[in-house]
UniProtKB/TrEMBL annotation:
It comes from the Bacteria. This is DNA mismatch repair protein MutL. Keywords: DNA damage, DNA repair. The gene is mutL. The lineage of its organism: Bacteria, Pseudomonadati, Pseudomonadota, Alphaproteobacteria, Rhodobacterales. This protein is involved in the repair of mismatches in DNA. It is required for dam-dependent methyl-directed DNA mismatch repair. May act as a 'molecular matchmaker', a protein that promotes the formation of a stable complex between two or more DNA-binding proteins in an ATP-dependent manner without itself being part of a final effector complex.
Length: 330
């Protein structure tokens, strides 16, 4: 059973950045307005995610660490998914491949903590915490040396973690994010995005300036289009702000970061008249659609989606961006 759990865990947690993604998504699902991530050695020795969300009641801590236990779905309709999590796999997987400690406090109750090491669950103990949740993961993959060997350098893993945090920060402009590196013993802030306010476009523009630079934010056109019940919002950069790689492409479906061939192809298609093959448009695209019309449950770790009618989303992106660029005189 432990072996099966570890194999399953490896599916969800491929590298430190996937652990960070799961933990930050949990914090967002908990309604956090401030999320702090601290890592050491590219997340290999330490990942700590602190949030000011709703917390987990002490008696529920063992449940949060048991496989397929989730508080986010009632079992009646698997497709109606609006929160990030819904499989109840992340925490048990992390507890199977590292030394995991969760400390949490719900309003009006005392704080409690639980630890899980290599899949072995400890008792719930009283703890000290003012509010929210702290999840600490040490020595990731210590129990699976084969997996440990496949990790890349601290620098490369840190880079992947930074990308994950930036992507989620882009998705949630009203939430404040801080990323720290504690490898040297002294925490050092490596990325900070203060919580934005105002309407969604103001907030997005502010967050864009933080994540991609003021230059991009000031040279992007606003997207706001709809087709057959699919909504497109966001910003697309003028062709002159293209990049040599896809690092400045942020795609979200119902608020969830996705990497999807159809959508990425549509983005490229929108700029086909402006850019050569080796240039990548910079854009932040939010597609919102009735969850019944899109399947986000394709793979637990790879953020793929499957639209019931892919042509609608594709057409919306191509024409939405072309019209916005044309309106801006391009
Ligand atoms: P899922 O997110 O798919 O529900 P997880 O294993 O990631 O599964 O988390 C299990 C459960 O633990 C969640 O459903 C939630 O109830 C609780 N939980 C996890 N992280 C947090 C957090 N940061 N704040 C509040 N509750 C949390
Ligand atoms: Mg989760």
């Amino acid at each position: 059973d432990t072996v099966i759990n570890r194999i399953a865990a490896g599916e969800v947690v491929e590298r430190p950045a996937s652990a960070v993604k799961e933990l930050v998504e949990n914090a967002l699902d908990a309604g956090a307005t401030r999320i702090e991530v601290t890592v050491s050695h590219g997340g290999k020795t330490l990942i700590r995610v602190t949030d000011d969300g709703c917390g987990i009641p002490g008696p529920d801590l063992p449940l949060a660490l048991s496989r397929h236990a989730t508080s986010k779905i009632d079992g009646s309709d698997l497709l109606d998914i609006r929160s990030f999590g819904f499989r109840g796999e992340a925490l048990p997987s992390l507890g199977a491949v590292g030394r995991l400690t969760i400390t949490s406090r719900t309003p009006g109750a005392e704080a409690h903590a639980i630890s899980c090491t290599g899949g072995a669950l400890g008792p719930v103990k009283p703890a000290a915490l003012t509010s929210g949740t702290v999840v600490e993961l040490r020595e990731l993959f210590y129990a699976t040396p084969a997996r440990l060997k496949f990790l890349r350098s601290d620098r490369a893993e840190t880079q992947a973690i930074t990308e994950v945090v930036k992507r989620l920060a882009m998705a949630e402009p009203f939430v404040g994010f801080t990323l720290r590196d504690e490898t040297s013993g002294e925490p050092r802030v490596t990325f900070r995005a203060d919580a934005q306010s105002g309407d969604l476009f103001d907030a997005l523009a502010g967050r864009l300036a933080t994540v991609l630079g003021r230059d991009f934010a000031e040279n992007a056109v606003r997207l706001d289009a709809e087709r057959e019940g699919v909504h497109l919002t966001g910003y697309a950069a003028l062709p002159t702000y293209s990049r040599g790689s896809s690092v400045a492409q942020f795609l979200f479906v119902n608020g969830r970061p996705v990497q999807d061939k159809v959508l990425i192809g549509a983005l490229r298609g929108a700029y086909a008249d402006y850019l050569s093959r080796d240039r990548y448009p910079a854009a932040v695209l939010f597609l919102d659609v009735d969850p019944q019309r899109v399947d986000v449950n394709v793979h637990p770790a790879k953020s793929e989606v499957r639209f019931r009618e892919p042509g609608v989303a594709r057409g919306l992106i191509v024409t939405g961006i072309r019209h916005a660029l044309a309106d801006a005189g391009h």
